[in-house]
Specification:
Layout (H helix, E strand, L loop, with lengths): L2 H13 L4 E4 L5 E4 L9 H7 L18 H9 L5 H5 L3 H4 L8 H14 L3 H14 L26 H5 L9 E4 L9 E6 L46 H9 L6 E4 L6 H12 L3 E5 L6 H5 L2 E4 L2 E4 L3 H8 L2 E5 L6 H5 L2 H6 L2 E3 L4 E3 L6 E6 L14 H4 L3 E4 L6 H13 L7 H16 L8 H12 L4 H12 L10 H7 L1
Parallel strand pairs: 5-12, 5-13, 6-9, 9-12
Antiparallel strand pairs: 1-2, 3-4, 7-8, 10-11
Helix pairs in contact: 16-17, 16-18, 18-19
Length: 486
């Protein structure tokens, strides 16, 4: 082939993540970290002829498999990576003198990473489809819930139903994650006694779980968030928010960059305390009737119809209003009485609503930085009514790795800890350089999803950089640092 064909082929392979390149000071390229993908390129076939068919899987793509172990596995009857991923550890141990139990465990774990993900995705989709099917017909169907028809209220505080003292720690949220792992802190936020209340965030293993369910770890418990420390108050954020929620209908404002886990933390607190979680996204067109409900005709009379905020207050939900500052001033001001006195005056309805005693209100917003230049500044009169906290990205690399690892891996290891730590380290570099696209914790979960789909870690990282880049940012500026880390 010509020099140009070879150069184009090398560049194409690097861009698609089939391999990575290292370059000498003279500019010559050396291929390393080869991860073959797809069919052999036509230019190779044209130059060297069609390669002989080979139905034997080369298990040496697994890091710990040597030539002798590869031969032994094939002689033992393992014909593909799927069969190897389901192998019994005892059956593999001692197939050769170097195949120890720990090495056998590593082989089975890595083999699972190489099994095509399509079958797993099909099983997940089938499970979700079954959950959303009509029990009588077995046919999938949409579900439309009229919020005004949900008149069930949240449960009672557990200390009441159990006959405990109100200060009994068994009946309250105890912060035992992040910095408080070794020395748990009781917060006073009571746990309610009805975990089956419709609004309580569900674990992904729950029969009524949906795509927004909370992930669980190997022990079956919901994976806790990586809890950052508020940079000024110097206390863990879950502890701070829980203590404010324990004070009653005290309005809370959480400020943090996109994908830093604001909503996940609140959902986690609601899950742990069996509280209804009502998330509402607002925009510039949001008006008071969108929050509280319009007036609608009913025969010859006009009657009020409850909106999400009003109904949530009646039912005792924890209401989270996202991107609060972008609302019209009139919509925000309509909440002032609720923020000040804990009662909601709906002028158009002619109603004064005294919320359920378990009702809570939290707003979230992005920080007023260049990256979020489209965000509106918050009215100072409204801002002063909130207890405000900052939720930054996780500052500690190891802590973010330990939080992400169970979320992105589940039953099968998609990304090993070493690779994940390198990805997280690079993400922290993007958060420190305002000229680069920023990779949030949420972006890292998407990035690992691409790896599960078959992309190499470096290709997945480059794709996510491109996906989040602002018009004035160039992802390629970060590639040199990425090559050094990953």
């Amino acid at each position: 082939m010509s020099d140009q064909q070879a150069a184009d082929l090398i560049d194409e392979g690097e861009k698609s993540g089939i391999y990575t390149l290292t370059r000498s000071s003279g500019g010559s390229a050396t291929i390393d970290n080869v991860v073959p993908q797809g069919e052999e390129p036509e230019v190779i076939t044209a130059a060297f002829g069609q390669g002989p068919p080979d139905d034997t899987v080369d298990f040496r793509i697994i890091g710990v498999v040597t030539d002798s172990i590869n031969d032994a596995l094939q002689e033992a009857g393992y014909t593909d990576l799927g069969a190897l991923s389901e192998a019994d550890i005892d059956d593999l141990t001692h197939l050769t003198s170097t195949l120890t139990e720990s090495r056998a465990e590593a082989i089975v774990a890595e083999a699972k990473q190489h099994v095509p993900v399509g079958h797993t995705l099909a099983e997940r989709a089938a499970s979700y489809y079954a959950q959303r099917s009509n029990p009588a017909s077995g046919v999938g169907e949409a579900r439309v819930t009229d919020l005004t028809n949900i008149t069930e209220t949240v449960g009672e505080p557990r200390y009441l139903s159990k006959g405990w003292d109100a200060g009994d720690e068994r009946g309250m949220y105890v912060s035992d994650v992040g910095r408080n792992t070794t020395k748990p802190v009781p917060t006073g936020l009571h746990i309610l006694d009805n975990p089956d209340y419709p609004g309580v965030p569900k674990a992904e293993t729950h029969p009524d779980a949906s795509y927004d369910a909370l992930p669980v770890g190997e022990d079956g418990a919901v994976i806790p968030p990586a809890v950052p420390i508020d940079p000024r108050l110097q206390l863990p954020l879950d502890e701070l928010i829980a203590k404010k929620l324990a004070r009653g209908l005290v309005p809370i404002r959480v400020v943090g960059p996109r994908g830093s886990g604001k909503n996940y933390l609140i959902k986690y607190l609601c899950h742990k305390t069996n509280r209804g979680y009502q998330s509402i996204d607002v925009d510039r067109a949001t008006e008071p009737e969108d929050l509280f409900g319009p007036l609608v005709p009913d025969g010859d009379v006009i009657i009020p119809r409850n909106g999400a905020v009003k109904q949530g207050l009646i039912n005792g939900d924890t209401i989270v209003i996202n991107e609060f500052p972008v609302m019209q001033a009139g919509a925000a001001i309509a909440l002032h009485r609720l923020l000040n006195e804990g009662t909601l005056l709906v002028k158009s309805h002619g109603e004064l609503v005294e919320p359920h005693p378990s009702a809570r209100l939290i707003i979230t917003m992005n920080p007023p930085t260049r990256e979020y230049r489209d965000s509106e500044p918050m009215n100072s009169a409204t801002r002063g009514r909130f207890r405000s906290f900052e939720q930054p990205y996780i500052q500690d690399i190891d802590e973010e790795v330990e939080t992400l690892y169970p979320q992105v891996n589940g039953d099968t290891e998609v990304v090993d800890r070493t690779t994940l730590k390198r990805i997280v380290r690079f993400a922290h570099k993007t958060r420190e350089n305002e000229n680069w696209p920023t990779l949030s914790t949420r972006n890292l979960t998407i990035l690992c999803e691409h790896i599960e789909d078959g992309a190499s870690p470096k290709a997945a990282t480059k794709n996510e950089l491109w996906a989040v880049a602002e018009p004035n940012q160039y992802p390629e500026d970060a590639h040199e640092t990425l090559n050094d880390i990953l």
